[in-house]
Amino acid sequence: MNAQTVLASSGDEFKAPGPELFEFPPLFAGGPEWLTKPVVFAVFGSLVVVVFFWSAFANPKLVPRGVQNLGEVGYMFVRDQIGRPFLGKNTDQWMPLLMSVFFLIWIWNIFAVVPIIQFPIASHIAFPAVLAASVYFIKIYLGIKHQGPVKYFTNMIPSGLPLPVYFLLVPIEYLSTFILAPFTHAVRLFANMFAGHTILAFFSLVGFWFLFEKPTVAGFSVGIIGVLVTIVMTAFELLIQFLQAFLFTMLAAMYIQSGLHAEH
Fold first, then answer.
1. CA 226/CA 205 separation, integer angstroms
2. Which of 24, 89, 103, 121 maximizes the CB count within 10 A of its CB?
3. Residues 6 or more apart in contact with residue 57 via CB below 8 angstroms
4. How many Cα atoms occupy the beta-carbon half-sphere of 103 within 13 Å?
């Protein structure tokens, strides 16, 4: 018996979760429109990262223990897997930024499976958009500073091509570099968190509906499937949350490097 048949037999309509999952009213009546749950927990996530690394490195010991040990593991991961492959000798200079971006996004993503919070902050486009824009402003600033205000823009275009080719290549290159690159940098993170949260909400609601809200003999198996899929998808989502933080920070390192040195 499929889910539609079960729903028909129960006499009630199951409504799948939709965009309303991402709509939050102000925290209190009459409060500012921007002061919502995602904003509060975005700030809370920032404080978690600050407190963790302050605890780890404010008074470092020669032999790391406890929080310092965890902090050094995180530092070495970001340095060896993200910083050095893309920034080389410039890695140490940019480690504070890379560490902050990676762990902030990771914490924001993990909030999706934390009880009570249960919402990935990066599934609101404003948050990844601000991070991506910040990284891109740094890239442009570094490019103009290290390559010059003229050469930075001309270095993006390969030399030695026939003149007619430049009429096509220049707009495409600048559109890709200044519009599409930061746009996809933000949207990749946003879209994955948005989709993952929607899927988790759907299957968890299926399990709750058929097992607790409107339990029926026919719907019991559907509810069990919903619970099992929720468990599997939660584990998968934890992996995606980590990977998206990694990819966002990796691209940030690439953009910074392209600002330090000409791309062509």
1. 8
2. 121
3. 68, 71
4. 26
**The pTM is what?**
0.87
Specify the DSSP element, H or E, that contains 83.
none
Whether 64 contacts 72, CB under 8 Å: yes
User: For the purposes of burial, counting CB atoms within 10 Å of the CB of 33, is it exposed (0-12), middle (13-18) or buried (19 or more)?
Assistant: exposed
CB 161 within 8 A of CB 172: no
Per-residue pLDDT of the chain (264 residues; tens, 9 = 90+): 334 434 443 446 777 777 888 989 888 888 888 899 999 999 999 999 999 999 998 888 877 778 999 999 999 999 999 999 999 999 999 999 999 999 999 999 999 999 889 999 999 999 999 999 999 999 999 999 988 888 888 888 877 778 788 788 888 888 988 899 999 999 999 999 999 999 999 999 888 888 877 777 777 888 899 899 999 999 999 999 999 999 999 999 999 998 887 665
Question: What is the total count of domains within the chain?
Answer: 1
Specify the length of the chain in residues: 264
Domain of residue 62, residue span: 3-260
> What is the DSSP code (8-state) at residue 155?
T
Distance between CA atoms of residues 88 and 166, nearest Å: 32
What are the structure tokens assigned to 182, written together? 């930061």
Do residues 84 and 91 lie in contact, with contact meaning Cβ atoms separated by under 8 Å? yes
